[in-house]
Design goal:
Layout lengths: L2 H20 L16 H6 L6 H19 L4 H20 L12 H4 L1 H24 L5 H21 L5
Helix pairs in contact: 1-3, 3-4, 4-6, 6-7
Length: 165
């Protein structure tokens, strides 16, 4: 990776962690809405980044958010899981004619493919996170409600970060 790309990703990492812990974690609209824009970092990582580095960065991001959110390992686990499955989701949704090293975005993938990719990543993240939070099958309706509401908000936030051209 070039120095410019490393600097860009480092800045994005720091900015998203700060936004998540200082702003988004403090939004509790109706007790259900808690946008999780930090996942955009994992979503938008270039595909040329080694899977081990991706998992390490996801773990670091999740751990930092866990520390500031007082959630013991929930964000770290959910973020690492989504980062682990990321490459397989890209292989599933992205046509083979897209060049090998790219940064997933609406501009590169097109809106339908990017939306499917982002929706899967975000829904998985929320489902894992809220399942760990409830830690019971007794509240599965609440888990599904929180997953649905937060996924829609987070997907809209991720899409708002894209430059439509």
């Amino acid at each position: 990776m070039s120095t410019n790309l490393v600097l860009k990703q480092t800045l994005r990492f720091v900015l998203l962690v700060l936004l998540q812990v200082l702003i988004f974690n403090n939004i509790r609209f109706l007790g259900y809405v808690n946008p999780m824009l930090f996942i955009w970092f994992v979503i938008a990582l270039p595909t040329g980044v080694n899977r081990s580095v991706t998992l390490l960065l996801a773990f670091l991001m999740g751990t930092l958010i866990d520390i500031f959110s007082n959630t013991p390992g929930m964000y770290a686990f959910a973020t690492v899981f989504v980062a682990f499955i990321r490459k397989d989701l890209l292989l599933l949704f992205v046509p083979k004619d897209v060049y090998a090293d790219y940064e997933p975005s609406v501009k590169v993938l097109g809106l339908p493919i990017f939306l499917k990719y982002v929706a899967c990543m975000v829904i998985l993240l929320h489902l894992i996170l809220f399942s760990l939070e409830a830690f019971s099958f007794q509240h599965y309706w609440l888990v599904l409600l929180k997953t649905g509401v937060n996924s829609v908000i987070t997907i809209l936030l991720v899409l708002s970060t894209q430059k439509f051209k």
